[in-house]
Amino acid sequence: MEMKEDVVIIGAGIAGLATAIALKRVGVRALVLEKTHELRTTGASLSLFPNAWSALDTLGVSKKLNALYTPYKSTFVTDVSSGAVQEVSFTGSDGTKAGPRGVHRKILLETLAGELPTGTIRFSIKINSIKTHTDGGSSAAILYLDDGTIINAKVLIGCDGVHSMVAQWLGLSAPVDSGRGAVRGLSMFPRDHGLGNEIQQFLHEGRRAGFAPLNDTEFYWFITHNTSPNEDEEMKSGDPKLIQKNVIESFANLPAVFLDVVQHSDLSTLTWAPLMFRVPWNLIFGKLSKGNITVAGDAMHPMTPDLGQGGAAALEDAVVLGRHIGNSFHEHGQIVSGEVTKALELYVKERKWRCAGLILGSYLSGRVQQGGSRWYTKYLRDTIFYKFLYRRFMDLIAYDCGTLPQSSSSVDNKAD
């Protein structure tokens, strides 16, 4: 079977779904191909700063999430060895409040998917190869699927994650290991946990742990730590029971309140993974689009989670990409091959420096906060970073991704 589509998006994660919504808003219908048999709602939660909510506002989705989640005002950081606690405010250097909200990943994905017309997402799709074809000045991306289907797309957007097939096709270098790993989970208490609505972090011997309430009974929690070639097999096993056991035994010197949160974990949400990132200069000098093919989300800019910007940057990508494709579509009344190539180049130009800065900022933030217990690393972390530099990082995070052009056409709004 052979199909023709205006826009094909590979990956039904945050970037893929949000990009499909942005395109729907400007009158362009996209087909989203997902390799799993359903939405990948596994995992715990993510922090969304105001820049992410600005993008959700533009996509018309934030109203469905606002009432569920309350912004955090600050985070309390405890040095476990000394017992010293300091409050770090989510405020920019100009006094602007920049607190994130903790959001269930499952709820965010389901909310995004619910905005798309029926049939937008096709599951259990395996792509064997990607090729391009040019005919009379018009180019198309050709996808060869495992079931024999051939899809000709005027635009192909890779939102297929850290190990993106589309990024590889573009020639981007593979993400590198940061030398750190992270355990993350979601914990559920039978009644009000009584721990307030602030983020708590604990620093000890080069490890950083923390938890953040999502509501009265649920917590998101994490541990980031330096990895080694002899990383415990229990962590790498993927077995949530073994990961939980390893955390409780190996991190027993962390405060009891944190270990209690770990004990209450929903094992289906508990994961361990190495923290990967794409080197910033690969974004600045690499090929992020070629003809009518580009990437968004983790496929473009995998980063460590230390500034909470992975999901936010993906939402920004969606709006910016939707804006440029929408402008081209409205000007010409259809997707025109040569013109949409220019639109993708404008998208890349707008995003590459922003995303390179977020990657670098996230990496440096993680390294400083997890710098170890020597006096000079503590001084850099507690006095220089938290008291002075952190507000500058809030300035880096602050961003308005703009609006989408108004569509004169309508796309079926029937939920998937």
UniProtKB/TrEMBL annotation:
Pfam families cross-referenced by the UniProt entry: FAD_binding_3
InterPro entries in the record: FAD-bd, FAD/NAD-bd_sf, MOase
FAD-binding domain location: 6-333
GO molecular function per UniProt: FAD binding; monooxygenase activity
Keywords carried by this UniProt record: Monooxygenase, Oxidoreductase
Family assignment from sequence similarity: Belongs to the 3-hydroxybenzoate 6-hydroxylase family.
Protein name, as recorded: FAD-binding domain-containing protein
Organism, scientific name: Kingdonia uniflora
